[in-house]
Design a protein that fits this description.
25% of the residues lie in helices and 37% in strands. It is built from 9 helices and 27 strands. The strands form 5 sheets. It has an 8-stranded antiparallel barrel. Strands 2-3-4-8-7 form a 5-stranded mixed beta sheet, covered by helices on one side. Helix 1 crosses helix 2, helix 2 packs across helix 3 and helix 5 runs antiparallel to helix 7.
């Protein structure tokens, strides 16, 4: 059994008439004491003093009573706390704006205890709103429930007096399951604002982590206060007051429809993300811990899909882990109207839409993904396709351009292949690089390309006093698939080829231009060795690139 500072409202409207007057009954009125708690033995009560509550809309007289059989040695102590309570409540009411309370309030200091049940759990109450009418409100404070500090007294009575405020500001409302979430939530917010630092309801705040994952806010109890703390973080006490008025003005009825009309979509999603980030605070600024519970942990691979399942004003959340050295593609069908699905790293605070791709080249990625709705039950199914880049494959991902030595080395091929033969016949051959280059791309989806961009070389052959000059320019792309099979080794698979070359032959005054398609690779698959160190790459065995053209530098990403 745990100590609880509050209890639901028991309406005793029959105690009060409709015409304005002072306190409806005196302690000499037979049976009056049982209006505060039917378990009280019939006996007179005694007034120990009064305090005045002053707020933006008026004043209220609060009297404090005791049973005749109770001792009176600490009357001054309780009256001192009562005055402190009134002095704090007035500014708090004014800050929220538009509140009023009955002109008369009677608080009975009971020497007994009170127990009640919520969700099959038994609690001990500190206080209870015993009855209310248009002119007077009755509150019972159970001072024997446990050792109660001065601040706990102020917190508990402030909570009950906010119920008096609720029924005065919106007298047509009847307390019930449809309004319980916001009436208890706002009363707890108000009590925490009046008595900052009191944690009588810490257990209810903690259980919001479970409640928000499995149930709607509108089905909550005292734990709904976390939401109102979040509204205060967004727009201060007046923001809570504005929401209170929107809910109160709607009255009794379908709680979902009323919440949808009162809570703006951005209010809810801002609260959800702040709560998941651990940025919601008590009114005094103390943080409320971010929830650590999730509905599911999903791992990719081997997982191939995940589903988000939520309801109106419920916060579904999962943890998704994406293994290193992979490229993931996430696809989702059209989603339910009003559904929000967003993600962030577990240790981050920035929320984004669920991405279409997740690349884990730098490290394994762990993401928190939440879903919520303002409409009703909603689901979002995501399919996850995985490309395994292999060990160390992520280093290859990106664009690479050849260094000067590689540009020249590919052009020098003619010297090494044709030069010796011409020399033996008494001639000579001189080939050199003339401009352009190529780009080597490794994409994170396991595809790649070699793209020549006007790469040119020229060769001059001399034989028996005759000279012939050949200029060659190469353009186009060879596309391939790739996967690292072990560090420094990859498998390549030919996919497509669109290369062209232009040759210009010059011999004396004769010039001949010979455009043609450049032949594709001689094999559909081959192996590639590589060494990748940061922004430096050497490759051997690639389609269309010979070993001499091995050195490449990473192309900086475009800003």
């Amino acid at each position: 059994m745990r100590v609880l500072g509050l209890l639901g409202v028991i309406t005793l409207l029959s105690l009060f008439g409709s015409e304005a007057r002072a306190f409806s009954s005196t302690c000499e009125t037979p049976g009056y004491i049982q209006a505060f708690d039917p378990s009280f033995a019939p006996q007179p009560c005694e007034e120990i003093g009064q305090v005045t509550l002053r707020y933006g809309g008026g004043t209220s007289t609060i009297r404090f009573l005791r049973t005749a059989s109770d001792w009176h040695t600490d009357d001054a102590y309780w009256l001192g706390l009562a005055q402190n309570l009134a002095d704090r409540m007035g500014p708090a009411m004014t800050d929220m704006g538009g509140l009023s309370i009955q002109p008369y309030v009677s608080v009975m200091l009971s020497p007994t205890t009170l127990e009640f049940q919520v969700d099959s759990e038994t609690f001990t109450a500190h206080a209870n709103t015993a009855g209310h009418g248009p002119e007077e409100c009755l509150v019972t404070f159970y001072k024997a429930s446990s050792d109660i500090s001065p601040e706990q007294f102020i917190y508990s009575v402030a909570h009950e007096l906010f119920h008096c405020i609720s029924f005065t500001t919106y007298p047509a409302i009847e307390y019930g399951d449809d309004v319980r979430w916001w009436m208890e939530g706002t009363a707890d917010y108000f009590a925490a604002a009046v008595a900052p630092g009191v944690r009588s309801h810490q257990g209810w705040v903690d259980r919001f982590a479970d409640r928000s994952l499995t149930s709607r806010l509108i089905d909550a109890n005292y734990d709904a206060q976390v939401f109102f703390f979040g509204i205060a973080n967004q727009s201060g006490p007046r923001g809570v007051g504005d929401l209170f008025h929107a809910l109160g003005a709607a009255g009794n009825g379908d709680p979902l429809a009323i919440a949808q009309g009162a809570i703006a979509p951005d209010q809810w999603t801002t609260f959800v993300e702040a709560y998941l980030n651990g940025q919601v605070t008590w009114p005094n600024g103390d943080p409320i811990a971010a929830p650590t519970n999730v509905r599911a942990n999903v791992v990719f691979p081997p997982g191939e899909s995940f589903a988000m399942e939520t309801d109106a004003f419920r916060i579904d959340r999962i943890k998704a882990s994406f293994a290193k050295d992979h490229h993931f593609v996430l696809t989702s069908p059209p989603q339910t109207e009003g559904l929000t699905v967003r993600t962030r790293p577990p240790k981050g605070i920035g929320w984004t839409e669920v991405p279409e791709t997740v690349d884990t080249c730098d490290e394994e990625q762990n993401q928190m993904i939440y879903a919520t709705s303002l409409v009703g039950p909603a689901t979002a199914d995501y399919a996850v396709e995985t490309t395994d880049l292999g060990p160390g494959g992520c280093c290859l991902v990106g664009g690479w351009q050849p260094d000067q030595a590689s540009l020249e080395a590919l052009s020098d091929l003619g010297n090494s292949m044709g030069g010796p033969a011409l020399a033996m016949a008494g001639g000579s051959l001189n080939c050199s690089y003339s401009g352009g280059g190529w780009v080597l791309d490794f994409y994170p989806d396991g595809r790649g390309a070699i793209t020549y961009k006007s790469y040119g070389n020229q060769c001059t052959a001399t034989m028996q006093g005759n000279k012939m000059k050949v200029e060659q320019t190469r353009d186009g792309t060879t596309e391939f698939g790739w996967r690292v099979v072990k560090p420094g080794a990859a498998e390549l698979q030919f996919l497509d080829h669109s290369m062209t070359q232009s040759m210009v032959l010059r011999m004396g005054p004769v010039e001949q231009v010979m455009p043609s398609d450049y032949p594709g690779p001689s094999t559909n698959a081959n192996g590639m060795s590589f060494k990748c160190e940061g922004d430096r790459l050497t490759v051997e065995g690639m389609f269309d690139l010979l070993s001499k053209a091995a050195g490449h530098d990473r192309i900086p990403p475009e800003e």
